[in-house]
Specification:
heterodimer; A: 276 residues; alpha/beta; D-Maltodextrin-Binding Protein, domain 2; 12 helices; B: 231 residues; mainly alpha
C-alpha cells in the first residue's frame, strides 16, 4: 500500500512539472477580442517570441477590461482601441510610451431590407432612424466597440436609455453579430470581425465612412514606476516589434486576399532614416 | 451540406490528418484535467473517509458545504483562483496566472468537492459494523482503510468519473485563469469558444466531437473496471 502511495506521489509530482513548461521571461498583453478573433496576434506573436525568447501571454478580454487590468498592474502591455478611455490612464501615469499601431473602421450593420431606413447620407440621421424605427443589439460589455457605440449615440443627441428596442448581449463581437443576424436587428461592429463572419450572417453594411467611425488601435506600456512588477523592458520590445516596417507591412497584408481589403491598416509611418 | 454535417466531415479529417495544433490541444486537455482529477482524488478521498467515519461538532455544516461545492459553478471557481493568482493578488508573485498550473488549481476547486461527496456517500453505504469486524479479525489500521476502499470501489470510481467529467467539460474557469493562450493554455472547451467566435463553425464542431469521444473512452474504461470488479 505504501508502494502505491509512493507511485501516486511520483505521478503527482511529475504531473505538476509536466502540466506546464519551464518559462523564460513572459509578459501579459491585455488586448481586445477583435484583434484576437481576427487571428492577427496568432500570426505575429510567434515571430516575436522566436526572435526574442520572450513569451507573450495575449489575453483577449476586451478594451474596458484590458485597461482596468493595466490600471491595477495586472498586465505589462495593452493593445486597445478606445482613445478616449486610454487618455485618462495616460494622464494618471498608469500607461506610458503609447504608440498608435493600426486602424480600421466601425460599420453600422442591419438587415438586408433596411426596414428602419438607415441608409442615409449622414451618420446622425442613420442612428436616429435606427433609434426610432429599428431594433438595435448592443455589446453591453464595456468593450471598445461598446464604448464607441455609446459615444455615437451621444454624438447624435440620442439618449441611449430611451431606445425601447435596444438589447445588450454582454458578449463578444462574434456572438453579438450572430444575435443581431438572428433577430434581424441593427448593430455596430468593427469591420474585421464582420468580414470574418460575413458568410454566416444575414446582415449588410448600412452606414460607413464618417470620421467618428474610425477605429484606432494603440499599444501602451504599463508604467513600472507606478505598478511594481510590471515588465516594461520586454513590453517596450513588443511595441517596437509591432512598429517595425516589416511587421507593419504584414499587418496591412493580413488576410487581404481573402477579404479583398485590409482588415487593419498599418499606422506607423517609417522614418526616412529607418530605411523602410 | 449543413454546417452540422460538414462539421462531422471536418472532424474526421482533423483526426485523420493529425493536425498538430489539435493534437496539442487534446494532449493538454487530458494532462490538465487528468492531473486535476488525480489531485482531487488524493485530497478528496481521505477527507471524504474522515467525514464519513468521524463524528465531530459542525460535521453537518461541513457536509452541507461539500454538497454545495459539488455544484460549484466553474466561473465562480475561476474568479476566485484568478483573484488569488493575478499579479497584484496574494499569490501573484508566483507567476502562475495564465499557465496550465493555474488551470489545474481552478479545476481542483471544482473536482475536489465532487470527489469528497461521492466518497462520503460510498463509505457510508458500507455496513456500519464492517471496520470493527476487520479490526477484530486482526487487520492493521492501514489495512482496514485499504479494505474499506476496496469495498467502496464502485462509489470511488463514480467519484473519479464525476470529477473528471466535471473538469474536462468546464470552460469558464479555464478561460479565466488560463487565458485561452494558443499553444499554451488552450484546451478543447476554450478552443471551441474561440473557433465559434471566429466563424470557424466546422472546426468548433470537430473539436466538440473529439471532446465527446474522449469523455466516452475515459468513462467506458472506468465503467468497465467498475463493472468487472463488481461481479
Amino acid at each position: 500500500m505504501h508502494g502505491r502511495i509512493a507511485i501516486l506521489a511520483a505521478v503527482l509530482l511529475v504531473g505538476w512539472g509536466g502540466a506546464t513548461h519551464a518559462e523564460s521571461t513572459s509578459i501579459i498583453l491585455a488586448t481586445t477580442t477583435s484583434t484576437d478573433n481576427s487571428g492577427l496576434l496568432d500570426e505575429l506573436l510567434p515571430v516575436f517570441e522566436e526572435r526574442t525568447g520572450i513569451d507573450v501571454k495575449a489575453v483577449a478580454v476586451g478594451t474596458g477590461a484590458a485597461l482596468r487590468m493595466a490600471s491595477r498592474g495586472q498586465a505589462d502591455v495593452v493593445l486597445t482601441h478606445a482613445p478616449t478611455a486610454e487618455k485618462p490612464l495616460v494622464e494618471a501615469g498608469d500607461l506610458v510610451d503609447g504608440r498608435r499601431i493600426m486602424h480600421n473602421d466601425f460599420v453600422l450593420l442591419g438587415p438586408p431590407g433596411d426596414p428602419a431606413g438607415a441608409r442615409v447620407d449622414r451618420l446622425e440621421a442613420s442612428l436616429a432612424a435606427i433609434a426610432e424605427h429599428g431594433r438595435f443589439v448592443s455589446r453591453g460589455d464595456d468593450s471598445g466597440t461598446h464604448k464607441r457605440e455609446r459615444a455615437l449615440w451621444e454624438m447624435a443627441g440620442i439618449d441611449r436609455r430611451t431606445i425601447a428596442t435596444l438589447e445588450e448581449t454582454g458578449q463578444g463581437m462574434g456572438a453579438t453579430l450572430d444575435i443581431a443576424s438572428e433577430r434581424q436587428s441593427y448593430t455596430l461592429s468593427d469591420r474585421g470581425t464582420y468580414l470574418a463572419l460575413r458568410k454566416r450572417l444575414d446582415l449588410e453594411v448600412v452606414f460607413e465612412g464618417e470620421p467618428p467611425l474610425m477605429n484606432v488601435y494603440s499599444m501602451y506600456v504599463v508604467n513600472p514606476e507606478k505598478h511594481a512588477g510590471a515588465k516594461a523592458e520586454p513590453a517596450r520590445k513588443l511595441i517596437a516589434f509591432f512598429s517595425e516596417p516589416e511587421i507593419q507591412r504584414r499587418i496591412g497584408e493580413f488576410r487581404r486576399e481573402e477579404f479583398g481589403r485590409s482588415l487593419f491598416v498599418p499606422d506607423v509611418v517609417p522614418t526616412s532614416k529607418g530605411g523602410g | 451540406m449543413t454546417e452540422l454535417a460538414s462539421g462531422f466531415v471536418e472532424a474526421i479529417q482533423l483526426l485523420l490528418h493529425r493536425d498538430p495544433e489539435v493534437e496539442g490541444v487534446v494532449v493538454r486537455t487530458l494532462l490538465v484535467s487528468g492531473f486535476a482529477t488525480l489531485l482531487a482524488m488524493a485530497i478528496g478521498v481521505p477527507l471524504g473517509f474522515v467525514l464519513a467515519r468521524k463524528r465531530f461538532p459542525g460535521r453537518t455544516v461541513v457536509l452541507g458545504v461539500v454538497n454545495t461545492g459539488m455544484g460549484m459553478p466553474p466561473v465562480v471557481a475561476g474568479l476566485f483562483v484568478w483573484l488569488l493568482l493575478v499579479r497584484n493578488g496574494p499569490f501573484g508573485s508566483m507567476e502562475l496566472i495564465y499557465t496550465t498550473r493555474a488551470m489545474v488549481i481552478a479545476q481542483l476547486f471544482i473536482a475536489t468537492p465532487m470527489v469528497m461527496g461521492f466518497t462520503v456517500a460510498s463509505i457510508q453505504a458500507l455496513p456500519p459494523g464492517l471496520p470493527d469486524l476487520l479490526r477484530s479479525l486482526g487487520a492493521s489500521r492501514a489495512r482496514t482503510l485499504w479494505l474499506l476502499a476496496r469495498e467502496a470501489r464502485l462509489g470511488l470510481l463514480a467519484a473519479v468519473m464525476a470529477g473528471f467529467g466535471a473538469v474536462i467539460s468546464e470552460v469558464g474557469a479555464s478561460m479565466m485563469v488560463g487565458g485561452n493562450l494558443r499553444g499554451q493554455t488552450r484546451i478543447l472547451t476554450t478552443a471551441i469558444v474561440t473557433e465559434t467566435s471566429r466563424g470557424q463553425t466546422e472546426r468548433a464542431i470537430a473539436l466538440g466531437l473529439i471532446l465527446l469521444a474522449i469523455a466516452f473512452v475515459v468513462n467506458l474504461f472506468l465503467t468497465r473496471s467498475q463493472q468487472a470488479r463488481a461481479t
